[in-house]
């Protein structure tokens, strides 16, 4: 059987059973309804694990399935540790997919995925992005939408950029196609309302950092015109952490050198190390 390009490492877990990735059936993870989480492993630790598992259950609840299914997070944590140990705890992302949610016994898949992280140069110089007209059906559910993902990936490839910033029907910026977006202006951080975006784990952590650093955060609808006078922007997410945006379409930004953005990047890396220390003690 041909190994699917997304799955990586030697072993995956299906409904609690460790299997060789050579046995992985790609079509099986395409069943719907389906929700998922992607979790990054750093220093052998699954980062912000509890928050990811809580969001997974929240996504399932928001789907409103008649069987009121809820994942046993303690049991899933044990399986995650089995997955990590079986594969030697590699420094990359793994994915949890829960599908067949309309049945009494949904399926749960755990597997490592091919992972790509920003380079040192991208953190130092920032990344290019484009505006892309699209909306999620229910932004708060981390659900699989294969067709939309494929269209966005094609647009990213055609434009040779890192990320697509989604714009809704009101010409308002909501989020990145696989990230959240924050905008800096006059010492204030702006971001789209929580109801309009996927509430990213990194997003929540960054907002917590802002409160700790006494940096005001405003959640409000953000028009495209708002970009004309902003000082900088960042992408936040599991893989990029906090990543400066150097351009959107043809508009340039000095995000990589903005003092507040540099402070947030440094503080977030420190936060990760604090979590790893607490997790391992």
UniProtKB/TrEMBL annotation:
Belongs to the class-IV pyridoxal-phosphate-dependent aminotransferase family. This is Branched-chain amino acid aminotransferase. It comes from Alkaliphilus hydrothermalis. It comes from the Bacteria. The keyword Transferase applies. One of its GO terms (molecular function) is branched-chain-amino-acid transaminase activity. Its cofactor is pyridoxal 5'-phosphate. It holds the Pfam family Aminotran_4. Keywords: Aminotransferase, Pyridoxal phosphate, Transferase. PROSITE patterns: AA_TRANSFER_CLASS_4 (PS00770). Its EC number is 2.6.1.42.
């Amino acid at each position: 059987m041909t190994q699917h390009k997304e799955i990586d490492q030697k072993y995956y877990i299906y409904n609690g059973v460790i299997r060789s990735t050579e046995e992985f059936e790609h079509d099986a993870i395409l069943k719907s309804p389906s929700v998922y989480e992607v979790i990054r492993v750093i220093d052998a630790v699954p980062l912000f694990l509890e928050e990811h598992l809580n969001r997974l259950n929240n996504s399932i609840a928001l789907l409103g399935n008649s069987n009121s299914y809820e994942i046993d997070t303690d049991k899933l944590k044990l399986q995650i540790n089995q997955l990590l140990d079986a594969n030697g705890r590699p420094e990359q992302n793994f994915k949890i997919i829960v599908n067949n949610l309309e049945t009494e016994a949904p399926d749960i898949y755990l597997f490592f995925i091919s992972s790509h992280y920003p380079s040192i140069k991208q953190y130092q110089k920032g990344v290019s992005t484009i505006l892309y007209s699209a909306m999620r059906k229910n932004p708060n559910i981390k659900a699989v939408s294969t067709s939309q993902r494929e269209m966005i990936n094609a647009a990213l490839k055609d434009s040779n950029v890192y990320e697509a910033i989604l714009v809704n029907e009101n010409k308002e910026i909501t989020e990145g196609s696989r990230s959240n977006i924050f905008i800096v202006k006059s010492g204030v951080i702006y971001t789209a309302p929580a109801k309009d975006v996927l509430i990213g784990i990194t997003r929540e952590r960054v907002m917590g950092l802002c409160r700790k650093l006494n940096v005001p955060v405003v959640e409000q609808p953000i028009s495209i015109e708002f970009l004309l006078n902003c000082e900088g922007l960042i992408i936040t997410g599991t893989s990029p952490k906090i990543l400066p945006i150097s351009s959107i379409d043809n508009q340039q930004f000095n995000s990589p050198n903005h003092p507040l953005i540099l402070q947030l990047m440094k503080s977030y890396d420190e936060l990760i190390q604090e979590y790893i220390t607490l997790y391992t003690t």
